[in-house]
Prior knowledge:
single chain, 66% helix, 0% strand, globular
Amino acid sequence: RPAAMLEGYRQIVGPRRFRGFARGLAGADAHGSIDERAFVERALAESGLGGRRKARLSAYFEQWLHGNERPQLTPADFR
């Protein structure tokens, strides 16, 4: 499920922002690890979204990472 979540994040924020996010992870955390909370916080901060859309993205990560059911939020919900 995490791979589908990441692809969805790329679709939500767009390829340019996603590449910047991925490069930031590879640069800052290249020789270590990042925990889930820090990952989500960074993804939210670098998403370029604000207000309700940012809150929706937070719910998106919660559903995809912790939900026991099929996630209801998909990239289509951000268009």
